[in-house]
Amino acid sequence: MLLINIAGIILIALIVWWFWLYKPIEAELGENDLVITVENGTYSPSRIKVPAGEPVELKFIRKDESPCSETLLIPELQISDTLPLNKLKSIQIPALKSGEYAFHCQMQMYRGQLTVN
Amino acid sequence: MSTMKTESGDVSCHEGGTTTTPHDHHAHKAHHHSSENNPGPQELIIEGAGCASCVGKIESALKAVPGVENAEMNFAQRTVSVTGNVDAADLVKAVEKSGYNAKIAAAESEDDALAEKEQADWAYYKRLMREMTIALSLGVPLMIYSVVVGEMTVSTTGERIAWLAVGLLTLGVMVFSGKHFFVGAWQSFKNHSANMDTLIALGTGTAWVYSMVVVFVPYAVPEMARHVYFEATAMIIGLIDLGLALELKARGRTSEAIKRLIGLQAKTARVIRDEKELDVAIEQVLMDDVVRVRPGEKIPVDGEVIEGHTAIDESMLTGEPMPVEKTVGDTVAAGTINKTGSILFKATRVGKDTALAQIINMVKRAQNSKPPIGRLADVISAYFVPVVMIIAVTSALVWLNFGPDPAVAFAIVSATTVLIIACPCALGLATPMSVMVGVGKAAEAGVLIRNGEALQTASKISAMILDKTGTITLGAPKVTDILVAGEQHEDTILKLAATLESGSEHPLALAIVESAQEKGIETGKVSNFNAIAGHGVQAEVDGKTLLFGNEKLMRERNIELGDFVEKAQGLAAEAKTPMYFAVDNQLSAIIAVADPIKEDSIAAIKRLQHNGIRVVMLTGDNRATAKAVAEKAGIKEFFAEVLPEEKSKKVQELQMEGEVVGMTGDGINDAPALAIANVGFAIGTGTDVAIESADITLMRGSLHGLADAIAVSKATLRNIKQNLFGAFIYNVAGVPFAAGVLYPFFGLLLSPVIAGAAMAFSSLTVVTNANRLRFFKAQEH
């Protein structure tokens, strides 16, 4: 029983670490054309590094049929746009100050983040 | 090499019945003029370019074509953008010669995009229904078995073999009907995020794995807990697929308003180029093209009438039911319907620039924006899934430690149920779905709401400030009286006044100039024109110094007014605006101008007051006129002689009194007040709407739009609250029950299947409730 309890507590700790504390590597929006794929409930890459102070273009391609994934929201920038299925869509991002900006789908099930610095 | 596809082929010529008019020639010139000065890039889609080195080859092939200024290829998108004055077909040929295929990328119309979306949705719907059918055809019989026959326990070898078969069938269901949940869960796990798929995959997966353990090694679990939950796995997957499918259907209805707006766009236009009439796709109409529209046809793009006259039904755009007469010089808007006559017009705004396209764009954006009320739900949603996973683990541990026998089974059931019931998707959908329908509903009534925040604030408005001219009144004043001092002739005065005012853009000035024009009086030359804000104007005409304005101005200049003050007051009491006219510092006349109150202003103001809103009128006009107009309009509170820069101060004053202030105005001088008000309402004059300037734009002149906007926003907010409540009950309040808090008191534990059904139908409930807003009707008027 003790073992099970310890295992349970470790499991909780793992959940906290994996979903909250761990910061995955950010993809850089550089010279190469970075395309964010919307598929299977995720944006990939989901963490994108963007230079501060200059407008950039994010390219999305939605391969997920779920209607929720159709809407892309960046609440802090008041950006909301629809992503057509299987078609490249560019979203213009204005010049931003350093910081973190979340983007997500309508239900907030698909989540990503722009890291500006 | 495959066959070349060029879309220039769909430009069909209609030479029969074409008559050459002087305008045709003009059109021809206009078209060329436009393409020389503003060629605009042409986009080609390249096929067969597999390597990065192709880029240079294609670009140089295109640059070699005479007329091409620049060609730039985007390798990632396989498109090339060409600038210069050149025929698209020549570009395609050039690419073909260099060994690749090219086709012209036609701008995708909203219509096509919508059709494509609907097709994709339909395919997805069918897939979900198919998956649901498979899952439920296993789940339902198993459920019936468990209810009718009883416990699904594993004790004999025969039972083990039978349940193994069922377990494998369930695995089949998980692969066929539930694969998307498992793939999604794995993908998001890799991404360090958790979502709905995570919860469903964990819940159903746990139930299945536990059942298989019971089948394979029954001795590993206590005898009382040797129970299989295959029916739960199959049922949950089936029910959630069903929920998703029904939600998809219901979602389609929420975008009805935008569909209707998109449907207003014409597909083709008949343009006159090179003295020929051609039917071209709407995307190919260029600025300055001359377009012919016949009775019954839709206006394809925005423009200015250059020949003919007609009546145009603008109701779909403005909500104004009466057709509007249009003649040479008037503007026409895309999406409206030409009723009676045939007209030629010059395209002034095409493609994404037409008022209709901008409206569609704005409604779409507003539909996806969130009012502040949804913020808490957003914060909850963001942390919800990992929290639920922790609750599920904790709940299982509590059952294992303190639960009655069979503790393992209770632990499994409670953890599975917690995972399944607690999807935050309904919470996430609660706000956007209502906003989507509400904003669309408002657009149908000719009210453009800029974003979710404006929608929410509009529902709380307690005081409404109305600008007088152009808002309560028509904004088209007419000269009603000219009272002359001394011996001069009325027409002489009018000529001088009109000359003076010809330099001003004030609506009252316009009334005087128009009045002179009607009498055939020509205006002279004006010099040293000086507008004195809030007072009047001054200028020199024929060596005389003319002064035209209100009593304040005259007093400041020490002009003797005599009994004309009384005469002016008499005119003002009749809701006319009297203005003093002085020549060389001598009072010469009073010219009175009246601006009639709009037909439905009185009823609309009554409606606002009836709904408990304090209505206040604001005007730069003199007190007596303002009072007369306010009385006629049924407004008790008004501020007269307000200078343009003071308008925003009045808004602030009301805000200091604790009012949530709505400000309604039509002019540029209202902009600061519109900006400072809690909600700024701009009155768009018919089709030429200043869409971006205000929080809410009323596309028709009627003040009923205000009451409609407030009514829609109130209904939407109510709907959002219902949705949030519903989603909260299902997803948040459901968690403790799923974890088993009721068990110690009532011996109740929620079944995972019930949880699955609740979860599946929570989103559906929210979307369906949002859809009820579609039937909302603003109060009849």
From TrEMBL, chain A:
Ranges that cross the membrane: 6-22
Domain EfeO-type cupredoxin-like as annotated: residue spans: 12-116
Gene3D superfamilies: Cupredoxins - blue copper proteins
InterPro entries registered for this protein in UniProt: Cupredoxin, EfeO_Cupredoxin
Protein name: Plastocyanin domain-containing protein
Entry keyword set: Membrane, Transmembrane, Transmembrane helix
Signal sequence residues: none
Automatic annotation (TrEMBL), chain B:
InterPro entries reported for this sequence: ATPase_P-typ_cyto_dom_N (IPR023299), ATPase_P-typ_P_site (IPR018303), ATPase_P-typ_TM_dom_sf (IPR023298), ATPase_P-typ_transduc_dom_A_sf (IPR008250), ATPase_P-type_domA (IPR059000), HAD-like_sf (IPR036412), HAD_sf (IPR023214), HMA_dom (IPR006121)
Localization in the cell: Cell membrane
Domain HMA: 40-103
Predominant place of localization: membrane
UniProt xrefs under PANTHER family: ATP7, ISOFORM B (PTHR43520), COPPER-EXPORTING P-TYPE ATPASE (PTHR43520:SF6)
UniProt-listed Pfam families: E1-E2_ATPase, HMA, Hydrolase
Membrane-protein topology: Multi-pass membrane protein
Class of enzymatic activity (EC top level): translocase
Keyword set, alphabetical order: ATP-binding, Cell membrane, Copper, Copper transport, Ion transport, Membrane, Metal-binding, Nucleotide-binding, Phosphoprotein, Translocase, Transmembrane, Transmembrane helix, Transport
Official protein name in the record: Copper-exporting P-type ATPase
GO molecular function, one term: P-type divalent copper transporter activity
Organism, scientific name: Simiduia agarivorans (strain DSM 21679 / JCM 13881 / BCRC 17597 / SA1)
Coiled coil: none
Biological processes per GO annotation: copper ion export; copper ion homeostasis
Cellular component annotations (GO), alphabetically ordered: plasma membrane
Similarity-based family: Belongs to the cation transport ATPase (P-type) (TC 3.A.3) family. Type IB subfamily.
EC number assigned by the record: 7.2.2.8
Transmembrane residue ranges: 132-149, 161-178, 199-221, 227-246, 380-402, 408-431, 724-743, 749-767
